[in-house]
Amino acid sequence: MKLYCLSFLFLITFVCVGQNPLSEKFGAVSKEEINMRVYEKDTTAHAVVLEEYGDVSFQLIKDRILLVKHYYTKIKVLDKDGVQHADIEIPYYHTKKSKEKIKDIKAITHNADGKVRLTDNQVFTIDHTENWSAKRFTFPSVKPGSVLEYQYTLETPFVYNFEGWDFQSDIPKEYSEFSAKIPGNYRYNRSLKGFLKLAINKSNVKKRCFYVPGLADKADCEVFKYAMRDIPAFKEEAYMLSKNNYMSKIAFEMSEYYHFDGGKDVYTKTWKAVDKEMRTDRDIGAQVKRKKFFKNQLPESILNEGSEYDRARKVYDFIKEHYTWNGEYGLFKDSNVRQAFQNKIGNVAEINLSLVNSLLGANLKAETVMLSTRSRGLPTQLHPVMSDFNYVVAKVTIGKEVFLLDASDKLLSFGLTQVRALNYLGRAMDFKNPSYWHTINPFAENRQNTMINIVVDEDGSVKGKISLVGTGYLAYEKRKELEDTDEDSYLDAVEKRIPFIEVSKYDVEGRTDVNTQIKEFFMLDFIDDISSENTYIDPFFFKLFPSNPFRLEERKYPVDFAYPRIYTSRFIMSIPEGYEYVNLPENKTLKLAGTKAICGMKSVAKDGQLNMTFKLVINDFHFKADEYQELKAFFNDLSTLESNTRLTIRKKL
Prior knowledge:
With 653 residues, this protein is of the alpha+beta class. Helix 3 crosses helix 7, helix 5 packs antiparallel against helix 7 and helix 6 (337-343) crosses helix 7.
């Protein structure tokens, strides 16, 4: 969606610029702060924010109403790893017509032997994208023990995109405070996100606080202050959705604007109103009215396919093979499906809206599903927030089966949605009927089957072979891995994971046919022979979890594996009559919350042949925060099982 700018033009120039209310804090660093060596509430912290303030108000500056944000912070560097927090980047937004301004940047490095100020020529402007740039600087003379403080002012005409305040970050904070003064004619929805509580939550109305020349009266303002104390660092861990879902912050969203002349604009709309707008939106609704064009592009053999399922698969393959993805998502970014089709290159929106058109052209029931990617955050369900959405896929219904399709990646099979799109809910639209929330379910059959055969000859030499078979997302990940590396590098990585073998021959089937299993075959030579002494062999050639991925003492956000998965392994070893197994791994079963996850290992030896089986089933891919400790214990036992299981073989005495 587009960012909006509000400006008022007057016949006379009127400037009303408030002084930075945070300037008085600048330069005040205590002896205790200089001498501080560790943050007692988190002794692992490399740096800590001692205090942080933000102050936002509406001001009339050179005939324009701007949102002005003053910012100040003080950071303590505790060790050498904390020095990285001396690198500061302040982003700002701009369009061809309007832009934000970063002003009055001041910074000081305080050390025990004195202080060093940032100079203007040490501040640089960096362009990231067409619309986003940043002011960047590095504090001078920083070392462990330094106290860093800086302040700046941001002026923005984009008042409708006032987002709020992030209390939590990747380092702890002793105190963070946010204040604002908003004229009553600007109405924002606000919400406290995350798991932390406010230490200060104050608001009141200030009468007649905002005046625009030429109007009869002044506007009242809402004045509020929010603060938190002793804020822990947000620590990311494996298997999680976007941290934006869980970090503590105050979020704002423009709901209504009452014009100074009495009119009103409503920004928190109903889905009914949004549906009506989207029918003619040039980036979405207008782009799915090209059914006839795409029908004419489809071969007759596809259009004449009698089975709806086969027809849908062939349409999907046609669009997928026709396009090359340009690496962009492109939702609400001037999509043009007809031009993209002719150029054979497009963003995700253009490719998948082309797919919707083609499915409709092939007389199939197809809809557009807008969603937010996992890295962006969960979409707001209470009311439409179109800026939440950044991705689009096609939904096709065949009988009672529903498939979500993404044709932007040639390695995806029919019905396999990109992992980045597995974010629980999407908004489905056909632009005729009311839109609705559609649950995004991951593909269910994701398996990796491993077969290992090892043979010990009479002379003690050892040879073996491995076969790996993957389906679903596990097959996709393998194909992606093979696509991104050459064969020699791939096999070098395999030998590094299994240091006691050399790969003498390798073959793969189904590498490009994404609608089949992918199968790998390895022929192995063992570096060392079996000796008369004890020889130890690790039967877990490809460890799934060599260490526990869950290490936090406490995790307040859920665990999300994205999709269910099943790993099976069978290890068969044959030894000649003159050798023996000294011990065998114990049979073991691990269970998590009934059947949410199950792991089992069994081994049987008879007449020199060992048959060992292992199976890990993760049935549920989502675990709540209150299940974390049990999940952590399960994976601790699992990683111990994989790391400590050894076979012992020797010549008979």
